[in-house]
Amino acid sequence: MVETLRVDYGISDERVLQAFLKVKRHLFVDTMFWDSAYEDSPFPIGSNQTISQPYTVAYMTSIITKHYQTGKILEIGTGSGFQAAILCELGYRVCTVERIDLLYQKAKRIFEQLRLRIALRYGDGTLGWSEMAPFDAIIVTAGAPSVPHSLLEQLNEDGRLIIPVGDTERQRMMIYHRQGDTIYETKTNTFAFVPLIGREGWNK
Ligand code: SAM
């Protein structure tokens, strides 16, 4: 998996690659996927959701490591917990929100088993996590129809919101960088995420 990220996708940040070596992806998927857990593909995790493709996780993580050595990160869409575990391994203070109770419970168990100090919350992540704000970076791992304002409001000075925005088929990974009262927007690559469902996302 790490060679694919390095050679095929050009992920060059050694910190990120080392985190992928340390965090065992098979522990975040059902045993029926263990033989293929290190392939570059998403897998079902139940409740019609997926663990993201490793490249996608590495891509989003690299945006964070490029700009922040340390800091507090909010993830929206805990899913399997793998992305949060990678960020935790990198030394960030990680908060993560999941809207599906079953996935929230599963992630809670795996974080406890692996002794990962990750703050996990059940709820609608389109509203952020105001009690824990502000965040140096917010990473959304589900596709949004537009940018949730609550998330922009919970960014620290010099904070970045990394979020796939588009329709339910394809989204453009966007970066919103807050500097004072100004938000700078950068468009990056195209991805295909499951929908971000909530008050400031897609309707149920
Ligand atoms: N980051 C995950 C991982 O490492 O496995 C993959 C995330 S999966 C592609 C998207 C997740 O976002 C799903 O678990 C879904 O339930 C969750 N989600 C969708 N809308 C949400 C919302 N408003 N708040 C919190 N989680 C949400």
From TrEMBL:
Signal peptide: none annotated. It comes from Chloroherpeton thalassium (strain ATCC 35110 / GB-78). Transmembrane segments: none annotated. Its EC number is 2.1.1.77. CDD domains: AdoMet_MTases. Its main location: cytoplasm. The gene is pcm. It catalyses: [protein]-L-isoaspartate + S-adenosyl-L-methionine = [protein]-L-isoaspartate alpha-methyl ester + S-adenosyl-L-homocysteine. GO terms for biological process: methylation; protein repair. The active site is at S52. Belongs to the methyltransferase superfamily. L-isoaspartyl/D-aspartyl protein methyltransferase family. Keywords: Cytoplasm, Methyltransferase, S-adenosyl-L-methionine, Transferase. This is Protein-L-isoaspartate O-methyltransferase. GO terms for molecular function: protein-L-isoaspartate (D-aspartate) O-methyltransferase activity. The lineage of its organism: Bacteria, Pseudomonadati, Chlorobiota, Chlorobiia, Chlorobiales.
